[in-house]
Structures are given as structure tokens and as C-alpha cells.
Fold:
Amino acid sequence: LLFLAVLEEVLVSIENELQAVEMQIQELVDKQQELLQKKMRVKNLIKQSSGDLEAGGSKDTETSSEEWNKKDFPWYEKIKTALQSKFKLQKFRSLQLETVNAAMAGKDIFLVMPTGGGKSLCYQLPAVCSDGFTLVICPLISLMEDQLMVLEQLGISAALLNASSSKEHVKWVHTEMLNRNSQLKLIYVTPEKIAKSKMFMSKLEKAYQAGCLARIAVDEVHCCSQWGHDFRPDYKSLGILKRQFPNTPLIGLTATATNHVLKDAQNILHVQKCITFTASFNRPNLYYEVRHKPSNNEDFIEDIVKTINGRYKGLSGIVYCFSQKDSEQVTVSLQKLGIKAGTYHANMEAKYKTKVHKGWATNQIQVVVATVAFGMGIDKPDVRFVIHHSMSKSMENYYQESGRAGRDDQKADCILYYGFGDIFRISSMVVMENVGQEKLYDMVSYCQNMNKCRRVLIAHHFDEVWDSANCNRMCDNCCRENACEKMDVTGYCRDLIKILEQADSMSEKLTPLKLIDAWSGKGVSKFRVPEVTPPKHPREELERIIAHLLLQQYLKEDFSFTAFATISYLKVGPKARLLKNEGHVITIEGITNRKSVFKVKPSQSSNLKGSRENAQTVSKTVQDSAVKKSQEHKRPSCGPNLKAKKPKLQAGGNDQPVVID
Structure:
């Protein structure tokens, strides 16, 4: 019997060892997949830099931008004259000449250009210089209306067709579509028009046969792809355009798309072969900064007001908020503290939106406090700051929103307030989207990072290679004087898993806030685990650790759907099983001064007690110092020195900022 018991112990030991080996194999497989993806990205970038990469992989010897950056094309004088006389511009911006030349040559084109780079000109100028009309597909009526207003001011004939168009207007547009001598150069429609209007498709067919359909422009082309950050089902129906009108050139435009999204969009649109122009995502005049979001709302608003009244006194800016309610409340708070602010969101009446927009454009309002509804088609060049009251739902959204600063190429600031609770507010909103949670976690990863250059992080997301040496200290991480060293949080992860497993055994679910309370020895007593010692770190550090474990899949979100809300809970994640191996170590980068030490030491890597003691050497003083450093309002040696000419803010009267009750 004794011998049998020994054998059973040996068997259990072997099974445990096998399980540990299986986990290590899984870790290696995960690492292999990650490296293979990196390898593919680098290979694509090598091809792209040599001018051989197409969005769909097909090769075209004319994809190099140098081939199109010439002034010897037969139409050059015509486009130069139109640029100056019609659009009142003296020169082309980066990649505009190349794109216009390729469009005039009748090529299919995909253009990736940053917000404010001048994408619209790349199809508007060829439209003015060509016979027939250009069909423009846009996702938002407000964006099309803004473009029509600008074109009207320039004396360029353009029309918009939507559900509210009068019968007379529709009839006139349909007639002009078949008139070879028509002055109508641009017709704007939503993708729904292509998908649902047989009458309009019939008119397009006739225009194509008559040689009047000069080209098709698909704005925000990333909306075609389900892997894009703003997938719209009606965009998938646009594939019919190339099938029905194969000889009409198409140009797809976007500010934010990875190579994967471009390839998917090309396949959906049935573009067999195209020229792809990709401008750099780098905006050298923008300073990127991530701040900790104060939990106390009064402190938070006070910090925003100090920033606006200090660094941006009298300068124009935008504050982006997560919800319409947030935007209204923040507007009221800013106004009470003397900031000329106006609210802007989708549910406001058109007259109020126009009033805020015009008030801001004429500098009667200093700050627009808005949701994402504000910005598309907005072309105010002297925006000196964009503040995110909450983080965006994706890197693509953040890049577009922050990109509305500094369009005059003068220095401007992009400040993002990162709060732990915002992760789960946004996650509950995007959970039903195809890649919504994945893209949100990319955004969280950007906010969590306290070491890498912000430009490197942005470039990596958009498949671009970037050397942090070229940042020129134009982001908070490149300006950081304190060291970033690795902190061992393995013991903390084990503690959190114990808390979650105990809750699960009681058929209870823990929200992120309840989990932190239980871990800190606060809140409902039944959720606490006696053998878990509450950590001594500030709450914001505990939040960073939990967010890190969520990103690394040691924890995962679980959602509960009610009639009124979607609630996010935290559960044990798929990688938690790796902790059964005592040698497994989890680390997170944290800020410390150069004298502090919380590096992971080899002797502590498998010592749970040592790990915990090692992690707790981070003092609140150091953390407070780091946060204070990152939130300094004056940066004499780092970031932009904003001494732009201050526009005069007009006071009082009927131009007071609009607040929606």
C-alpha cells in the first residue's frame, strides 16, 4: 500500500509537470504567432518602401510616388491653373500632386493621408479639370453638407442627393448627369443611396454609357472592411460600382487604415489593380501626452481649466467627451470657471450646432466640448489643443480626433486623460462590434505605455516604421526624466485570481471596481480573501496592474446584458493557467526615480513573497512625483512652445456659448 501511494504521488507529479510543459508550449506557440505577424509586417514594409506593395498584393510598376511627382504631364498646366484660380491655393501639399496626376491618368487609387492632409482636393481638383462628373460616396450627410458649402463658396458646381432632397432637385441632378456639357462636377451620395435606390443606379448606368461618369470617389474607404474601426454594412454594397462600371476609375480615401484593412477594402470594391499612396502618419508639430484622469470630478475640471488658462490662454481648442451627457456637463463646468465653451453633439438641433460651429470658427467661443460627432469636415487651421476628457474607442479614432489640432503646421498639444473606469464604459459600448474590444484594448495599451515614444506606438499600429530619435521630445514618454523599470506583479495576479475564484464559487460576479475594493481590503467583506494581503500602492497603480493583466489575458471581461445597460465584470482569463507553473513571471513597466529599484531579480522570479515585497517598494511619493511631472503645465525644455498669435475672443451678447439643458 505504501508503494502504491508513492507511485500515485509520482504520477501526480508527472501530470503536474506535463501540464506545466503544455503551458510553456502554448506560450511558445503564442510567441511564435506574434513573431510571424511581426515578420509579415516588416516584409510588407520593406516591399512598400521599395514601391512594390499594392493594397491587394498586385504589382504595378507605377506605384512609386516618384513616378507621379512630375510636372511634365499634358494636364499639369490645367490642374495648376485650377488649383490657384478655383481653389485659391498656391501649391500642392504632400502626395496631392502625385494623386491628382494618377487620377487624371485614369488610374484606380487608394490614398491614405492623415486628417487635415488635404484628401478632398485629390478628387475635387481632377473633377474640375475633367469632362463629366465625379460621384462621391460619403458616410455622413453633415460631412457632405460641409464640403458643398465650401465648394459653393469657391464657385464649383456640386450637388447632394439624400432622402430630404426635393423632387425638383433630384430631377435636375438626374438631367445634369446625362448632359455632356453640364457644369455639375461633383455629386455626393451616401452608400445607402447606392445600396437601395434602383432609380439612381439606373441613371448612373445611363451616365456611364454616355461617357459622363468621370470617376468614383469613396471617402472613408476603411468603412468597407469589417476589420476597420468604423465598419458600415452599406459600404459592402459598393462592390457593384466596379462590376457595373469597370472602365470608370475609382479613388478610395482614408486617414486611418492598416494594410490589412486596405486589402480587404480593395477586395470588397472589386478593384483588381490599383496605385496606393500612403503619407506618413507622423504629425511633427503635435505633442502627445497621456495624463492620469483624477477620480474627483472637481479636481479633473480644475486641471483642464488650469491647462487652458495657462498654456492656451485665448487659443482655440476642442475637448472630446465620451457621451452627450458628459459634453453638456463639462461645458457647464468650464463656463462656471470662466471658459468660453460651447456644446456640440449629434442630438442637438441644427441651428444650435451651427451657432456653436460659427462661434468657434470666429473665435467667439474658445473651446468646443463635443462628442465624436464634431470634427469631420471641420477645417479650422489654428486649433492649438485637443483634450480627450475620456480616451477614444480605438487608435484610429484617437488619431483622427487628435489630428484636428495644428492643421496650420504650428505646434499644438494632444492631451488624453486616461481613466480606469473608462475602459469598461467604452467596452460595454463596443462589445457587439466585430473587432471593437480588440481595438479598444489597443487604445488602452497606448495609454498604459509609460516607456515607448508615442509616435512609435502610433506608427506601429498603422504598419509604419518610426525611429523615436525623430520625435524631437514631442511626446511625454520621450520627455520623461524618470526611469521606467519592470515590476514583478506575479504575486498580485495570483491574489486577484484567488478573489475571483472565491466569488465564482459563491456564484457572484465582480465588477472591476468591486475587484479593486476586495483586493484593497475594502467594500463587501464576503468578497475578501483572508490570505490576500492588501497591497500598499496608490489606487491608480492597482488600476494599472489590473488593466495590464486584462490586456495580457490573465483576466478577461464578461458581459451581462440588461434592458437598460450592458455591465462589464472581470473573470479569470485564459492565460491564468500559466501561473500553475511556479517559475512563471508577469511584469509591468512602472515609473520610478533612478535611485529606486524594483527590477525583477532572478532570485525572486519564483518567490511569491519576494515578488510581492519587491513590488511594494514603489512609494506613493515617487508615483505622485511622476504624475505631477507628466501634468506640468509649463514645459520649458520639452514639447511645443505655444506662442501663436492669440485670436481676439469677443464677449457677451447673442454669441454666448450654447448649452443644452
Summary: DSSP finds 23 helices and 17 strands in the chain. The chain has four domains: 1-48, 51-278, 286-474, 485-630. The mean pLDDT is 83. Residues 1-48 form one domain.
